[in-house]
């Protein structure tokens, strides 16, 4: 376990490490009814993509008009978040669906 990291499990049984830099990214946001951990606990969609490294992409609405795409790469101990995008474009979602495999 790395210091300052927050750990959650996804519905597929994967352990996700959230680095400190992502833990406060939603602080102070209005109209948000879920936190970042919920994106992993209960995603609307999980997509697997292999771009030379194994990646999982989690997509969920976290507010009335706010969606979040959180991405993690495989590590020796589980998975680590490397990107979080607020309101990703439909082009990004389409590319993930086209080139990835939907797991949930």
Task: Put the structure in a nutshell.
By secondary structure, this protein is an alpha+beta fold. It has three helices and seven strands, in the order ββααββββαβ.
Q: Which helices and strands occur, and which strands form pairs?
A:
Elements: E1 6-9, E2 15-18, H1 20-23, H2 36-41, E3 45-50, E4 54-63, E5 66-75, E6 78-86, H3 90-99, E7 101-102
Parallel strand pairs: 2-6
Antiparallel strand pairs: 1-2, 3-4, 3-7, 4-5, 5-6
Keywords summarizing the entry:
7-stranded mixed sheet, 3 helices
Structure commentary:
The protein contains 3 helices and 7 strands, in the order ββααββββαβ. The protein has 104 residues and is an alpha+beta fold. It has one domain. The chain has a 7-stranded mixed beta sheet with strand order 1-2-6-5-4-3-7. Strand 4 (54-63) and strand 5 (66-75) form a beta hairpin.
């Amino acid at each position: 376990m790395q210091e300052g990291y927050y750990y959650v499990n996804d519905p597929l049984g994967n352990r996700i490490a959230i680095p400190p830099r992502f833990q406060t990214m939603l602080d102070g946001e209005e109209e948000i009814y879920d936190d970042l951990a919920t994106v992993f606990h209960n995603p609307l969609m999980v997509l697997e993509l292999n771009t030379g490294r194994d990646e999982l992409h989690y997509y969920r609405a976290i507010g009335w008009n706010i969606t979040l795409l959180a991405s993690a790469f495989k590590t020796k101990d589980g998975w680590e978040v490397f990107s979080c995008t607020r309101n990703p474009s439909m082009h990004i979602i389409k590319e993930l669906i086209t080139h990835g495999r939907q797991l949930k």
